[in-house]
Hints:
- The chain starts with a strand and ends with a helix.
- It folds into three domains: 2-254, no CATH class; 260-327, CATH 2.40.240; 367-445, no CATH class.
- The protein has helices at 114-123, 162-165, 170-183, 221-228, 242-254, 284-287, 390-398, 402-407, 419-424, 431-445; strands at residues 2-4, 21-23, 29-32, 42-44, 51-52, 57-61, 64-70, 75-82, 88-95, 130-133, 137-138, 147-151, 187-193, 208-213, 237-240, 260-266, 274-279, 297-301, 308-309, 322-327.
- It is of the alpha/beta class.
Amino acid sequence: MKIKIQKGHNIRISGVPTGAVERADKFREFGIVPADYLGIKPKLVVKAGDKVELGSALFFDKKNPQVNYPSPAGGTIKEIIYGERRIIKKIVIATDDDEAIARLDTIVVENSNREGIIEYILKANLWPLIRQRPFNTTARPDDTPKAIFISGIDTAPLSIDPTMALMGREREFRSGMQVLTKLSGGAVHLTVPIGSSAVVFNNLNGITIHKISGPHPAGNIGIQIHHIDPINPGDIIWTVNVQHVATLGSLFNTGQFDPTVLIAVGGPAVKNPNFLQTRIGAPLSDLVQDNLNTTANRVISGDVLTGRAVEGEDYLGFYHSTISVLSIDHRRPFLGWAKIGNSAKVYTLTNAYLKTGKRNFSFSTKLNGACRAVVPINAWEDVLPMDIMPNALFRSILAQDVEEMEKLGILECDPEDFALSTFACPSKIELSSVIRQGLELMEKEM
């Protein structure tokens, strides 16, 4: 199947990573932020001072107690940082010089049934690699999905090309795809760019390959599901990040957790935007050290549309392959929106300014206005390639009308698919946050 996405927009942001890959994974500490795993209630199985192995369990989900969440390093639990109401904010592991690694005996995928493979992944504490829609939470091992989706294209700002991320991990990726064919109750879908000739995506047995083109958010799993196999009430679809497919394959090839991840470091506030081979949970301050233009910056684990802004000492998110950095700017421009200009100086998605040139822009944290009444000029609809009415859905969520939300298709939605609509919104409405509120309400009702 070929899919051509028409609606959307590629944000022309400066600081696009270039150059060769550098290695950055030798750090004295690593950390996990439980908030990266949506919808869980973590229960610790370790305490400060405990010894842990790479891949051993740090906590489990009270709502899904079969699923443990792994340590990204071997060493000693340095500290556990709590927030309000004793919510676990961060778990910090101080690494040992001789890092201990949790190991399992390998099994042969071809000779294993679905139940045996699920049990093996659970035993290795790597089930969080698999997420499910609706709600984009950690998959439930007892469920059988109607399909599994993997996106081989990433259109988010400053993101890394998945084919580049898989260089040197082709064998692991193929092994991981073989594992997923055993887990799915239906098809396993892989999307690749139209015109792609990447060898890593060739000759994958049992995989349905779709070719896709178009602006962001064409690379989002939610958009691809919508166009290939939409979610209906009662449906479950599992999704896996393309680099995590290789992580799964590595588990079955070696019997251990390989936390390696290739990331892009970019943004207007980065001196030398580059690519780093590091590992999940690496300290962000060390990854961007001496590579920032100013002292007042916002460092984001993830892309600028959907990532998590860091607070103090923080760590690379479990599902993130981008570090984005923006300069913090609170200055108000003279005359504001009323000033005359052109799109070579002022970024615009509309015809508010004369359009001249297509250079990249040094975006900052400035919002250029405050939240105001909704202006119905199709700003959301113009960049949302889904057959969904976002304005009506937004209103039904605010009214907490669960039946109307379901009729309007909220089960197909995820905040990342509406992040571009939030960026384009002239009213500064945080539409992504509202979608998340609606999904949490739906999950409680279901």
